[in-house]
Write a structure and sequence with these properties.
This protein has seven helices and 13 strands. It is of the alpha/beta class and about 280 residues long. α4 packs across α7 and α5 crosses α6.
């Protein structure tokens, strides 16, 4: 096992909340005080490429960062994945199981997980390896597991209740290079949510415009709002403006600034979790 990483120390973890984003190459970490404003820790714990598959790499990374094993008030884990579908919340458990099987999002040694997205009438149905889920459950105290797209859908659905135009939101991640796309109709109803791998700004532009059409939106008159990696967003925005009438950045939530300006450096879906409760 590699040497322990030098990470910040906190005096009383029971008044702190731990938010983790599990990616293919490592963990993104946000810790937020629940009692002191301007108290946020943002850092990353990369996986050792020689550690083996995901469970082994995850275990080594966690135990190399003892900070993560503190007795936090609450632990949330977002799993970065494109293996999900959005389904009506009214479906029975049996119907959701059938939908997961039909869409082939659950492979061998994996199980389906369900995130209810309040206010949308939808659930996000996603998959996670059983060995990874077991490690998270025995390592952290009652961790809440979520698909990485779920906080985006939940937060944007609330923002979409304002106004009467269709809206398509795109969250861009540089590493790994993917774009999460969430679209809402003129009535504020959720139309789609997908995650696509990209290699360039042109790929993101293609998927955003294609999803707008699929959702029944008109790029000439409906809104496209971008968030995520700054460099990728600034490259994408002028490209989209050639084909769409309204392309703007998502306004960073002011409530997140209470934890400190370092929140700007955190993965956007992580900082949304406390805001959507």
């Amino acid at each position: 096992m590699k040497h322990a990483l030098k990470l910040p120390e906190i005096e009383n973890p029971r008044v702190w909340r731990l938010l983790l984003l599990l990616e293919e190459g490592g963990l993104r970490v946000v810790a937020v005080s629940t009692v002191d404003d301007s108290s946020v820790i943002v850092c990353g714990v990369p996986f050792d490429p020689s550690a083996g598959d995901m469970p082994a790499a995850l275990e080594e990374a966690v135990y190399a960062a003892p900070f993560l094993l503190s007795d936090f008030e609450k632990v949330d884990v977002l799993v970065s994945t494109s293996e999900y579908i959005v389904a009506p919340a009214s479906l029975t458990a049996e119907a959701l199981e059938a939908a997961a099987a039909y869409s082939a999002i659950v492979g061998e040694g994996e199980s389906a997980h369900t995130d209810v997205v309040d206010g949308t009438g939808a659930v996000v149905l996603w998959s996670l390896r059983d060995d990874v889920a077991r490690f998270l459950a025995r390592t952290f105290r009652n961790p809440a597991l979520h698909c990485s797209v779920s906080p985006l859908v939940r937060y944007f659905s609330r923002k979409t209740q304002l106004g009467n135009t269709g809206k398509i939101y795109a969250h861009i991640t540089a590493e790994p290079p993917v774009v999460d796309i969430v679209a809402f109709g003129h009535d504020g109803a959720l139309r789609l949510a997908v995650t696509k791998p990209v290699t360039a700004a042109a790929d993101s532009a293609y998927w955003i415009l294609a999803c707008a059409r699929e959702a029944g939106l008109d790029p000439a008159s409906d809104e496209i709002l971008l968030c995520g990696d700054n460099a990728a967003r600034h490259e994408l925005m002028p490209l989209l403006r050639r084909y769409a009438g309204y392309v703007m950045p998502v306004i960073f939530p002011s409530a997140a600034f209470r934890s400190g300006r370092d929140a700007l450096n955190a993965p956007f879906p992580l900082i949304l979790i406390p805001l959507c409760e």
